[in-house]
Amino acid sequence: MRTLATLKPGDKGTIINVTAPNSLRQRLYDLGLTPGTEVDLVKFAPLGDPIEIKLRGYRLTLRKNEAIFVILEEQKHD
Amino acid sequence: MIKVALVGNPNAGKTTLFNSLTGSSARVSNWPGVTIDKKTGFYKKLGEKIEIIDLPGLYSFNPYTNEEKIARDYILDEQADVIINIVDATNLERNLYLTTQLLEMDVPIVIALNFIDVIEKDNIYIDMTKLSNLLGVPVIPISALKNKSLKELMANVLLVSKTQRLGKTIIESSCLGSILQRVTNLLEKDETIKHRNYHAVKLIENDHYELAMHPELASFVNELKTLEKDDIFHGDYAGKIADCRYKFITHNIKKIIVFKAHKPKINQSLDKVLTHKFWGIPLFAFIMFLIFHLTFSEDLFFFNSLGIIKEGAFDFGVFGNSAINSPGVILFNSMDLLINYIGSLITLATNNSAPWMQSLFVDGIWAGVGAVLSFLPQIIVLFMFISMLEDTGYMARVAFMLDRLTRKFGLSGRAFLPLLMCFGCAVPGIMATRTLKNEKERRLTILLSPFFSCGAKLPIWLVFGAILFNGQYTDLIITSIYLLGIVVAIVTGYIANRFFIKSEASPFVMEMPEYRVPKWLNVFARSWEKIRDYVINAATIIAASTIIIWFLTSFSFSFQMTADSRQSMLGVISSFIAPIFIPLGFGGGDFGWVFVVASFTGLIAKEMVPSTLGTIAQVSGDVLQMGGSELLSSPLATIINTLTPGAAFAFMAFNLLTIPCMASVSAARVELKSRRHFILTLLLWISISYVSGVIVYLAIDYLIAQIVFGVIVLALITFLIIERQVKKKRGLTHE
Q1: Which chain A residue lies closest to B246 (C-alpha atoms)?
Q2: 8 Å CB contact between B220 and B186
Q3: A57 and B91: CB-CB below 8 Å?
Q4: Separation between Cα atoms, residue B440 and residue B331, nearest integer Å
Q5: Which of B126, B274, B333, B583 fits B318 for a cystine, CB–CB 3.0-4.6 Å?
Q6: Which of B239, B247, B400 is closest, CB to CB, to A29?
Q7: A58 → closest Cβ in B94, B242, B281
């Protein structure tokens, strides 16, 4: 399954669902990670975790164990 | 008088706007019942006096944290006449999310569109009229940093304060519109309910607080919801409503915001360097080195260490001896001169009074006040640097880079800097915990602060290191003490997180703010606020505790002044309680009381520990100035060598981990705010240091204990590994 945690720096993805437990899920929605939103993975922290993403014109960081809950659309192969 | 509340996202410039509007009239207190800053001040430039309340920064009104609950209750209880919603123009989309919630409340709102100067520079154009029409409230473009259009903003606030405003919601025109309509109708039957739109939306969201307020409506609302089908949210209406809000914003924003030309931002190239995969952390280490160097170094330009200037070449007093001092040291030396000068004046003035009186003033009161003052210059310098790093946005990057390390302590990356400070001095370290957003995290960081051995504790390790094992392992002994502190911090953090703080497992999700040039006034204001709190508190705690310890060391129980420590009250008390420390190895024997006295005097300042030992051992000269061989042949060595190696280490461990000096204690008192947490922290310091002391003593001196501890540690490690594996497996099957 493709999630925010499987992206590499420079990758893009479109959110289809957020499966986090209640309060974290709401926090992610509140910050704009709603279904349909496009996110860019900007970079990993020097130690590999957390990650920095870009969405809705601003940048956000979250840990990988939080990013796994953000489910992304499967990539189209043409 | 009109009451105006500032509401906005974190990083939207709320504090800057608040400072610009209120100037020196700002006062910080606590919200009732919680230990979160409440800032109030007055705006006086218009005819009417306007009180401004700075509400905690928040992303939404879903009350998951205390901060959000405070802001929500404040507005719903109609305590404010007008809300200024400060919106970051550079980040319109996300900032308007909060606005769509705010608009649902029955209160006049003015939108302050901040950073208007920044977006003009970036060639972005925002149509104010369209935005204002869309939201139905006035929108005033401002720059809080440059004091631009603030008068216009306040004039509008004054204007709308005379009006009434009914809440509107964007949910009306969404797919949830019909449900909303029916819930609102229900609420309308009750005339007393204000903020109907807001409550209706919250009911649909299944908000706990809301359902508790209208339990009779819960089943009706749930029934309505079953009529709707949806494949994405599966009945998570809070998520669905969040989605509606963002859809509304993205749909409308295209007509409002025009990007004239894109140009690469300095921001991004700066960020590439500062958080670089390889250079990011070394660069941070260098910046930290620079800050410590500018604060503590006695050789600012490395003239002396590079041999450019010879020893004894010149002596510029406070500015340096054969080298140039750093600004921090110059201030420190100047303060020292001043303290000594005032001290000598006090000695002079009390020459004609009784010896105990003179001693009270010189060794008691002034020694205490002087101790606070002497700390001050370097604390101010350090704290200014921290405020600056915070305001530029670099601190968020530090948190980002080091989160993985601090997670081992059960803390987020933000706690790294405060903890690092503690290796220098715990006072600015504890003060810097205010940059932590989470209150529990702040308490834990303060609890861990003494475990990071500070500069004043080094003399203890140096003296013991020089004497133990005939001074063969000085380096090893010092290193092991520093490591011991770190290990205890990790274990404490782990236990605290696992058993006490486990609740909302504070997520790291954090906005990365844009880099900004700090506003000097803000940096000064914040540092001053901090220092003022500290000095007021320190003056009382430190002065009182020094006087008590002075009294106990200078007098015997027959209230005679005595020079013999053993006859003094503290000596007698220490002999009495020394047996408590027998499990740590150093409480028994002829000299047990000596080590207890030294631990007590360490509460004034930790370098007093070796000084006191030296005084009691009747060492001639200053212990802190002596070299290794000198110490080894001094009477102090005889006393320390009465301890077994285990007991000596236990004594060091105890002094490292126990209640720190009074300066740190008063800083902790200021930051912890609640008396209960303060006392709890003191008790934890005592118990952690005691238990660690016992473990260290037993583990070093007794083979049996080594075996037992070894087995326990192995068992724990195995348990943790198994637990992790089980969790991993569960995680896999879950997916």
Answers
A1: A32
A2: yes
A3: yes
A4: 35
A5: B333
A6: B239
A7: B94
Query: Cβ of B275 and A57 within 8 Å?
Result: no
Instruction: Mutation target for B interface from A3, A58, A66, A70: give the one with most B CBs within 10 A.
Output: A58
The model's pLDDT over B547-595, given as tens digits with 9 standing for 90+, comes to 888 888 888 988 888 878 888 899 999 999 999 999 999 998 889 999 9
ipTM for this model: 0.95
State pTM to two decimals.
Answer: 0.82
Judge whether residue B503 has pLDDT over 50. Answer: no
- Rounded to whole angstroms, the Cα distance separating B510 from B393 reads 12
Report the side by side order of strands in the sheet with B50-54. B27-30, B37-43, B50-54, B2-8, B82-88, B109-114, B139-141
Q: Residue B509 is nearest to which of A1, A37, A62, comparing CB atoms? A: A62
Nearest to B96 by CA among B253, B237, B207, B203: B253
Residue with tokens 């706990």: B208
Task: Looking at the complex, report in whole angstroms how far the Cα of residue A12 sits from the nearest Cα belonging to chain B.
Answer: 18
Cβ–Cβ contact A49 with B under 8 A: yes
Which residue has 């996202």 as its token pair?
B9
B623 vs B502, which has greater pLDDT?
B623
| CA pair distance B530, B551, nearest whole angstrom | 31
Residue B102: closest CA among B241, B209, B197, B172: B197
Structural domains in chain A, CATH included, are: 4-72 (2.30.30.90)
Local structure of residue B443 (DSSP, 8 states): H
pLDDT at residue number B504: 46
Comparing CB atoms, the residue among B236, B281, B396 nearest residue A46 is B281
Q: Which residue has the tokens 């101790």?
A: B371
Q: Does A61 touch chain B (CB under 8 A)?
A: yes
B99-to-A32, B65, B130, B610 alpha-carbon distances in Å: 14, 19, 15, 60
Instruction: Name the residue in chain A with its Cα closest to that of B277.
Output: A46
CB contact under 8 A, B64 and A26: yes
Structural domains present in chain B? 2-169 (3.40.50.300), 171-259 (1.10.287), 271-325 (no CATH), 544-716 (no CATH)
Distance of CA B694 to the CA centre of its chain: 31
- B233 versus B459: the higher-pLDDT residue is B459
Distance, in angstroms, between B476 CA and closest chain A CA? 29
Minimal-distance CA residue of chain A relative to B276:
A46
Smallest CA–CA distance from A44 into chain B, residue: B277
Among residues B48, B55, B97, the alpha carbon closest in space to that of B76 is found at B55
- Of B59, B400, B402, which has the smallest distance from its Cβ to A61's Cβ? B400
As a whole number of angstroms, the distance between CA B494 and CA B405 comes to 13
